[in-house]
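Task card 7
Instruction: Convert sequence to structure tokens.
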Amino acid sequence: MEAIKYSLLSSLNDEVLEAVFENSIVSITDSLGRIEYVNSKFCKILDCNANKLVGETHELLKSPLHSDRVYKNLWRTIKMGNKWNGVLADFSKTGNPFWLDTTIIPLINEDQKSVKYLAIYKDVTKYHEKNIKLLQDDLTNKKFLKKMPLNVFTISRYGKILNANKRFCDTKVNDLIDTYLYDYFSPEIFEYFKQNIDKACVDKLTHEFELYDFDTVGEKKFFSVVVSPNFDEIGVVISATIALYKITKLKSSSNKLIDTEAKFRAIYQSINVGIIVVADDKGNITEWNKGAEAAFGYEKEEIIGRSLTVLMSDKYRKGNITQLKKAVNRIKNKQNVDVVEMCCLSSDGKQFPVEFALSSGVIGDSSFYCAMMLDITKRKLLENKLKVKTKDLELFLYRSAHDLKAPFSSAEGLLGLLKEEKVSEEKELLMEMLDTVVKDGKELSESLSQASNILINKTDIKKINFTKAIDDVLVSLKGAEKFSNINFKVNVIDAYVFHSYKEKIKYILQNLIKNAIKYSANMEGLESSYVNITVRTNQKEAVIIVEDNGVGIHKKKLHKIFELYYRANRFNEPGHGLGLYVVKNIVNELKGEINVESSVGNGACFEIVLPNSI
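Output:
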């Protein structure tokens, strides 16, 4: 056990403790950190008498030389009954600094509770001061390297920066480490740069060359480069040392071309309306404009060379990367790329949604990708407000529809009682008219109630049994006028298990079949009316077709039949123009399609295609 039984130490007096720990610096504190015992070595290093220390709070456990996190970790460890080890530092009463390699062990009583803490120290002040001297010497060497006119890098065979002597492209040394040297140059010169690095590593010889690039203000800059390979014990190249020196010699372009390139870069980088981010084929950012700087909060020097994932929200990063990969694959396959939504992250940790279009280009053998983004935060806020309003309206519709049913049912009952009474022909005619109005109103309230139930009740996705769903609908409609005159033909081909919202599918079937019954033609003396219901499923979708030989719809009115309260046969048959409107909205919600073909006297054919929600 790391903890020591308190009963063992409590039986020892100070003289025995002094003998046991004569070669160590020792203190014992109570559970609150107050000193109960210190040996002479402890008093010596603190330059203080034991009588003044006993009863006081342990100085080492509140030293300003350490952060609160160190002490929180220390106390958490020992309170759990575990040993803690680390280096603590403080000043003696005379102001001399010291460092102690410290081990604190909880003293456990018979109830297995930590009641005291034994601390054993080793003076490591000399070693620590020697380390400080080495660090100061190292700092002096680094200052010398920083003053050198050359930028010196040690890179891996693949261009990753392992070390650097000073900042480059306004990027600090620590931020340069583990990034790629090529990313600090334009994609246009990447291949040329890499070829020269590879040549030095393959030939195992020091190689010199020159290159040029553009700075942040669009001016051309030239470099003289020296590459020297580094070898391991058996002569294998494991890294390379690169020295870059800025020069002003112009060799490759005319003045006119230089001016044109500089103007292009200046214009691109000054655009601050949209967000433009350019990345190489490894996903590292190579360019971005003022709009991106304002949106994400990073200076250009902070972001160039870093991965695109730094701009993505941690919560949605996996989904964002998946969307990005899909867009890149579509570009590679020369397919059209849809606008993509992504949740981004600014430098201060703020999340915000963007909509972006991705395009690509090729320079030499290297590809680059350009994302043109638009911050859609305000649009999303409006959409969320609209959703809340829509839910309120759906709830209002739901309650209103249910509230209307009761008075219409009561009125219908009262009319039934009146019909049993003897009345004049004139009153009987009025009662028949009133009966028609009440029935019409009741049918409207029931339609509203059914539609509101579909809108407000959010059911789970389930396996759909189309055969049973159609049978249930036909049973529920048996009492409808004209039902007995219609020949129904049902053909369900379940080639694949289909999943969707059961109540929504049932509503679609019921409305389409109900309309086919309602608007069936009077076929007296001829072959009876028919309604054909066909369903075909596959792995991706289900196709639902409801076809009849009823009165049909005029071709000029087909585009209006899904509008709210529109009735294509309003002068022939009663109706409220609500069913097809709700059907269209359900199909849109399920990301499906609905089409209709019809003409007067030739019936109608509705075809609905719904994606498989599995």
